[in-house]
Amino acid sequence: MEPKPTLRPLDFQPVYYQEQQMWFLRDPLHLTDLQLFFPAPMVQLLAFLDGEHTPREIHAAFCRQIGIEIEFEIVSEALSRLDEACLLDNERARKAKDELLNAYRALPYRLPALADHGYPAEVEQLRAVLDG
After folding, report:
1. How many domains does the chain have?
2. pTM exceeding 0.90
3. Pairing between strand 36-39 and 11-17?
4. Interatomic CA distance for residues 81 and 73, integer angstroms
5. What CA–CA distance (Å, rounded) separates 31 from 94?
């Protein structure tokens, strides 16, 4: 992990999981299949992932923000999960992005992005739609 972690651009969606308000952190680039749900109070931690703070400084700032002292291991575990999911702007995310880009470039043709969403994925159904 970087000495001063930075959060990548993400989509945030409020959700309820196990009767608890959470935030679903979605990676628009889909660098991995991992998905993270953060408890609502923990989302405040993400504001300190700006490349200006070490994990210890993030912990201290987060504790001041929420008004209680929590164990450093909770923040450390959150940072590790973010890193595993390639949600931090670091070497792991850059490598995952390069691998996806190389795999995409190696394809013989571009995969249909909207099949079954904007038009039928089945050839015969699509042909019928186009012929109609």
Report:
1. 1
2. no
3. unpaired
4. 12
5. 9
pLDDT at 115: 85
Measured distance between the N- and C-terminal CA atoms of the chain, rounded to whole angstroms: 55
How confident is the model over 78-122, as pLDDT tens digits?
A: 999 999 999 999 999 999 999 999 999 999 988 788 888 888 888
Alpha carbons 128 and 32: distance in angstroms, whole number: 36
**103 in a domain, yes or no?**
no
Range of 57's domain?
Answer: 1-94
Q: Quickly list DSSP for the chain.
A: --SS-BBPP-EEEEEEETTEEEEEEE-TT--SS--EEEEGGGGGGGGG-BSS--HHHHHHHHHHHHTS---HHHHHHHHHHHHHTT-BSSHHHHHHHHHHHHHHHHSSSPPPSSBTTTB-SSHHHHHHHHH-
